[in-house]
Amino acid sequence: MSLTGRATGRLLADRRADRPAGEPVWPGYGQAPAAVMSLFLAALAREHGSVHDYATGSLGIDDALVSALRDRLLEPAAAPA
Description:
Layout: H1 3-6, H2 8-18, H3 34-48, H4 51-58, H5 63-73
Helix pairs in contact: 3-4
């Protein structure tokens, strides 16, 4: 299971709290299977060069925020076996 999948219950609960009148139409709401994330990241790299370039160029966020997001959202890479 992808890390996003572990948070699906919390994402759905937050959405229901914000919009109590209806459920998400998309059955995969709050899920990001690893295969889908790989496709997304490949497309992002083709179109923008890197996640960093997308964040700073297209979203306009600065390097300090990129660094803070990396620290909060990414896990350290596994050591080579």
